[in-house]
Write a structure and sequence with these properties.
alpha/beta
Length: 445
């Protein structure tokens, strides 16, 4: 608490626009300790059937009880949820907010470290700008946790991290404690265009796979030398790039691939077999539906869109019901944004995926759709032990919607993170204000 207040005071002295956020943090801390009960609401827990006229009670940042018959203590703040819906906080497994911010200028563009095809030594954590208005706009859309990843210009782009979507002066304050890191990699057109277009390797997909093999061969050799040195009591070699890749081989860092085509995903799986690491997830993956059995058997998750494709050749062969088809075949599937606008409407992304499922004759319901934007991304990010569902003992990351969360007419009324109220639509008059949005078009609402 004391540390938080110090940061708030420093922020107000140095950077005017952050003053409001710092004051908000003090309020969040006070709210976090209070017992809060939301009653008479329709609740989607992402872990059990829908609860009608339900109550959720949380205190000290954790969910205490949830159900149709919950005893509410006399000291609890009670919010009448009649006509409203409650869900877990939404989770985005693929975002670039803070490293690809608004306003986007050459001096704020920290998405891709294009100094080499393998930049595993860099981390998005070191470039996150907490004052990016995108964080607040995502909060207004009910997003409480998100993975922030490097871009896809490089074959091996660097490490990504998971943050709690709280107002903060520093990125380190936002990190979700003990959440696994990611190693972001990319195959296909992006690295070929960036490097091949400049007359460097890789020029072709042959070059892409060859460079991956060489990088993992180097990492395997480094890991062996490191382990031998440590066993002999000698200093381990100092190589941040190789140490990150060795972290994947050790199973400590989750490797995720930006990949669209089914054949390229299968090639990356072959590479993972050759060097003995487990792929966590394919992102975008518009052709994943073609190899659903393989992905299920390999225990590889997919983060994709409901209806975004066709913007480049490798993204042409998609189908609207892809998420539901993967669900049907037993693949762990979630929806993601990869976009500062789309992240504000992940609930509508899930609604579109659900509608496409029904059009395809796959009879999924709200209980499944809410998982695509809550519990499933939590699973693939390794944070499902603490968030992603509404269950006693989990973090009180909670959204109160004005109505059916899968309706275009509904909005997030209240957003809680760790039990603290971090967004109140009525108070904020439904809009996000920031000096950094001045003059920006298409920056969201």
């Amino acid at each position: 608490m004391l540390n938080l207040l110090k940061l708030a005071a420093i922020s107000c002295l140095v950077v005017w626009p952050s003053c409001a956020g710092a004051q908000g943090q003090t309020g969040e801390a006070d709210t976090r300790s209070a017992a809060t009960a939301i009653i008479n609401a329709t609740i989607l827990t992402a872990a059990s059937p829908r609860i009608e006229n339900g109550t959720i009670l949380f205190e000290d940042g954790k969910i205490v009880a949830i159900g149709s018959a919950v005893d509410v203590p006399a000291n609890a703040a009670v919010i009448d949820g009649e006509g409203r819906w409650v869900t877990p906080g939404l989770i985005d497994p693929h975002s670039h907010i803070g490293v690809f911010p608004t306003p986007l200028l050459p001096t704020t563009m920290d998405l891709n470290e294009k100094s080499g095809t393998n930049t595993a030594q860099v981390s998005a954590e070191d470039a996150i700008w907490p004052q990016d208005p995108g964080f607040e706009m995502a909060r207004a859309g009910g997003v409480t946790s998100l993975a922030i990843l490097p871009g896809s210009a490089n074959l091996i782009g660097g490490r990504g991290v998971t943050v709690h979507n709280i107002e903060s002066v520093t990125a380190s304050e936002m990190l979700l404690p003990d959440a696994p890191e990611f190693l972001k990699m990319a195959c296909g057109e992006n690295p070929m265009k960036v490097y091949g277009g400049a007359g460097k390797a890789p020029v072709t997909r042959m070059g892409v796979v060859a460079e991956f093999r060489q990088a993992w061969a180097d990492a395997t050799q480094y890991r062996r030398q490191r382990d031998e040195a440590m066993k002999a009591g000698k200093p381990a070699p100092a190589d941040l790039q190789m140490e990150t890749m060795a972290g994947v081989l050790d199973g400590d860092i989750i490797p995720v691939f930006h990949c669209y085509r089914a054949d390229e995903m299968e090639q990356m799986i072959e590479v993972s077999h050759e060097f003995g690491f487990q792929i966590g997830a394919f992102h975008h993956a518009t052709e994943a539906y073609k190899i659903a059995d393989l992905l299920r058997d390999e225990d590889i998750a997919v983060a994709t869109w409901a209806r975004r494709w066709g913007f480049k050749m490798e993204a042409y062969d998609a189908v609207p019901a892809a998420a539901a088809m993967l669900e049907e075949d037993g693949v762990t599937v979630s929806l993601h944004s990869d976009n500062a606008l789309l992240i504000q409407r992940l609930n509508i992304e899930a609604a579109m995926a659900l509608a496409s499922a029904k059009d395809a004759g796959l009879d999924y319901d709200y209980e499944t759709a809410i998982k695509w934007i809550t519990s499933r991304p939590a699973e693939m990010m390794g944070i499902d032990d603490r968030t992603g569902t509404l269950e006693p003992g989990k973090l009180a990351d909670v959204v109160v919607w004005s109505g059916d969360p899968f309706s275009v007419y509904s909005h997030a009324d209240l957003v809680y993170i760790d039990g603290a109220l971090v967004y109140e639509r009525e108070k904020d008059e439904g809009s996000v204000e920031s000096d950094f949005l001045t003059g920006q078009t298409g920056a969201g609402e």
